[in-house]
Amino acid sequence: MKIAPVTGFAAAREYYRFFHDPVDAMRECYKRYGPVAPLGPIFAGQPSKPRLLIAGPELNRQVLSDPATFRTTGQLIRGPRGSAQQRIRFGLTRMNGARHKQQRQLIMPAFHKSAVDGYHALMVEVATGVLNKWKPGRVYDIHSEMRAFVLQLSSAILFSADPDEGLAIGKLMEEWLLRNFSSSVWMLPVDLPGTAYRGLLRHAERIEKEILSMIERRRASPGKRRDVLSLLMEARDDENRGMTDEELVGQATILFGASFETAATTLTWTLFLLAQHPAVMRKLMDEFDAVLSGSAPSPDQLPKLEFLAYVIKESMRVLSPVPYAIRATARRVKIGSLTLPHGSTIVCGHYLTHHMPELYPEPERFQPERWNSIDPSQYEYLPFSAGPRACIGAIFATQLLKISLTLMLQRFRFAVVPGTRIDRVARITMQPRHGMPMMIFDNDRQYASSRVAGQIHEMVELP
Ligand code: HEM
User: Fold this and answer.
1) What domains sit in the chain, N to C, each tagged with a CATH number?
2) Ligand 1: residues within 6 Å at CB?
3) Which of 69, 266, 319, 341 is the most exposed place for a label (fewest CB within 10 A)?
4) pTM above threshold 0.90
């Protein structure tokens, strides 16, 4: 197959198309060309270099198991050389080679099972506090609620249970993420008074200053803090090297960025899917009744919630929270029958792999029971990606999802507001474009689905 260069108006159109709706762009390309497909320019720069979409286990393995050839580029605004923006975006997701390996080794212990077990009590406490504020009988934008909910949880665990410290920096980081994806920043990336781009740069400086003062406070009064930032400050690699302050700032920011929208989005989609599948919801409640009898889960009860684990897996398959990953080739490389030059862009379409009928029969159906009889490899099922750069927070995220869902679903019944239009927007994570209006009731177990409209029907068959 020959890849025709996409230039001029067509390039602009393709660029806009991927920027506007990457899932639609991927689905169309896959339909037209199959698992190795040319994709229009994705980001600005070097339009002559091929952009390739891949899907399926073999190609995923080739790309994701070889980080030396297929390097990460980062999707946040780069910022001028020497700027705070450049420093705070330079965390694990942006690093390659030996530096990535060394930093990953330093961060890993804070996300091992034993460390994550240690966050259990705080997760239950913070989540219960948030849920106590919900008023049954009201309509909420559940996606905004999930963002606020995960913001509190992530901030408390990553930074500090004291909201004046933890939540304050979390809020700054949430705003920073939004600014990174604002079209006014992308369209006019110039550092002039009044531009959104300058606003982003100033905001990054504030975040850097805040994290540096948090580090200073911890150094001034060393104590028994167990937040992730404190653990990172204590971490040492094989050669007894710790992180520099600059590395701590970058890693702390990126850990928040990587955890916040992903977990919030997964919760939103899972609540939506459960609300629209009353039979699944009833079965889940049976399991909660049998294992938890209405209480919050203890660490040893979580593994007993087998059907909940299936629900979460199936939700992340059907409505993949991270629908694609991007890599750049570090040398000339062959993919399928194509030879790509150094610097080509590869988009791994995780969403497409998750919807392949040869891997998942009736892929658009939400069927948690299928997990009883399937055991896909890491390259067939990759909500947390796969290979040496797979998500470092997968255990943390799974625990957060399980605790949050058990607490929410035992206490409340969720119903989508009838007639809601559900479209998607995907910038790193795939979220509902216009939010997710849902009614919350005391859990009277009168589960019923609602009629909804929009792109959601392309992605999942609703009863
Ligand atoms: C449901 C929640 C989550 C999902 C769906 C998710 C998904 C992913 C995916 C797909 C990647 C690979 C991205 C790529 O290949 O370009 C990734 C990487 C990463 N995730 Fe997560 N993530 C979640 C939660 C978290 C949490 C809670 C943390 C930490 C607190 C975290 C930290 C990271 C980091 C640091 C990386 C980069 C790893 C590396 O490059 O070595 N994630 N995540």
Assistant:
1) 8-459 (1.10.630.10)
2) 72, 92-93, 104, 254-255, 258-259, 262-263, 266, 321-322, 325, 383-385, 389, 391-393, 396-397
3) 341
4) yes
